[in-house]
Amino acid sequence: MTVRNVVFPAGRQALYDINRYSPAIKSNGLLFVSGQVGSREDGSPEPDLQAQVRLAFNNLNAILDAAGCTFDDVIDVTVFIVDPQSRFERIWEVVPEFWGQAPHPTVTAVGVTWLYGFDFEIKVIAKLPESDAA
């Protein structure tokens, strides 16, 4: 059995233990990051949509940082949005704060009906630094 090379951000391991999943796994020079939401310290959703998106990106960035990456290393993005027709534009006003300069990563946006009380989730695949690609 292969042992997974798991990356944990500082201070959030209990959240992943309770829900029984890994925040990110390093494999073959890539970092596969689980979906991140805009949860407050107690795990509850941030009620303001744009603040929730910022928290989701901050949680994502904590995992990327723990793996020695930045958002510039992100290759592929998948976002999940509850009711995208009414929320997409407000969410996309926040994205440039974190996205960086072009060329941007690939992106798939998926409309969903439920995200455990959240309105936005983001998961990514990133390229690991050369020194950590093994």
Automatic annotation (TrEMBL):
Gene3D superfamilies: RutC-like
Source organism phylogeny: Bacteria, Pseudomonadati, Pseudomonadota, Gammaproteobacteria, Pseudomonadales
Name the record gives this protein: Enamine deaminase RidA, house cleaning of reactive enamine intermediates, YjgF/YER057c/UK114 family
Organism: Pseudomonas abietaniphila
GO CC annotation terms, alphabetical: cytosol
Pfam families in the record: Ribonuc_L-PSP (PF01042)
SUPFAM superfamilies from the UniProt entry: YjgF-like
One MF term in the entry's GO annotations: deaminase activity
